[in-house]
Amino acid sequence: MVDVERAQSVLVDLLAKMGFDAKVEVHEDEERITLEVKTPDSALIIGKKGQTLDALQTLMLLLLRQEDAEAAARAGKPVVVDAEGYRARRIDTLVDMATRLAAKALASNRAVELEQMSAYDRRIVHGAVGAIAGVTSRSEGDGKDRRLLIVPDPTKVV
Fold first, then answer.
1. pLDDT at 72
2. What confidence tens digit (pLDDT) does each residue in 69-101 have?
3. What is the domain extent for residue 18?
4. How many CB atoms lie under 10 A from the CB of residue 138?
5. CA 72, CA 1: separation in Å to the nearest integer?
6. Is 43 a member of any domain?
7. For the chain, what is the mean pLDDT?
8. Measured distance CA(84)–CA(44) in Å, rounded
9. What gap in Å lies between CA 61 and CA 134, rounded to an integer?
10. What is the spatial distance between Cα 114 and Cα 95, in angstroms, rounded to a whole number?
11. Residues contacting 54, CB < 8 A, separation 6+
12. CA triplet 132, 135, 137: central angle to 5 degrees?
C-alpha cells in the first residue's frame, strides 16, 4: 500500500524541482486517494487534456516504487494527482461527449470515430457508452494510433 504522506512529499518535491510553488492536499474516499495540487499555476500543472497531470502521477508512482517496491506491490487504493478538480470535470466532459456521439451513431446508423485519447479516458467513454441502449464501443489500433469507435449495435435493445 502506498504511503500517502510519502506520496505527498514526493509530489511536492517534484513540483518544487519544476519551479512551482505548490501545496498538495490529500483527499481519500472509498475508491481512491487524491493528491490535489494547489497553485496559481494550475493550468500549467494540468497541461493539455491533463497530460501533465498524468505525467506527474506516473513519475511520482515510479519514484515511490523505486524507494519501496514491496510496499508499492501490496494492494491498496489508487493514488491520483489532480488540480482544481480537473479529473471530475474531464469525466463529465467525456460522458457528455459519449452521449452526444452515441446519439449521432444511432441517428446515422454508422460508426463514429473519436479523437485520440488516453487509456483512462477511453475507459470512461467505454463505460458511458455501455449504459446507452442501441450502441456499443470498441478500441482499434495500437499505441498512439489507438482510437475508440462508437458503433450502432442491433443486439442491444433500444
1. 55
2. 665 555 577 889 999 999 999 999 999 999 999
3. 4-84
4. 13
5. 6
6. yes
7. 89
8. 12
9. 39
10. 13
11. 47, 118, 120
12. 100
* Same structural domain, 13 and 70: yes
- Does 63 map to a domain? yes
Question: How many residues can be counted in the chain?
Answer: 158
Residues 73 and 95 both lie in one domain: no
Sign, Cα dihedral of 78, 120, 158, 100: positive
Check which CATH number belongs to the domain holding 79 and give it: 3.30.300.20
More reliable by pLDDT, 93 or 143: 93
User: The C-alpha cell of 104 is what?
Assistant: 449521432
For 72, the grid coordinates are 508499492
Amino acid at site 113:
E
Three-class DSSP labels, the chain? CCCHHHHHHHHHHHHHHCCCCCEEEEEECCCCEEEEEECCCHHHHHCHHHHHHHHHHHHHHHHHHHHCHHHHHCCCCCEEEEECCHHHHHHHHHHHHHHHHHHHHHHHCCCEECCCCCHHHHHHHHHHHHCCCCEEEEEECCHHHCEEEEEECCCCCC
Q: Is residue 74 part of a domain?
A: yes
> Residues 71, 1: contact at Cβ < 8 Å?
yes
Q: How far apart are the C-alpha atoms of 117 and 136, rounded to whole Å?
A: 18
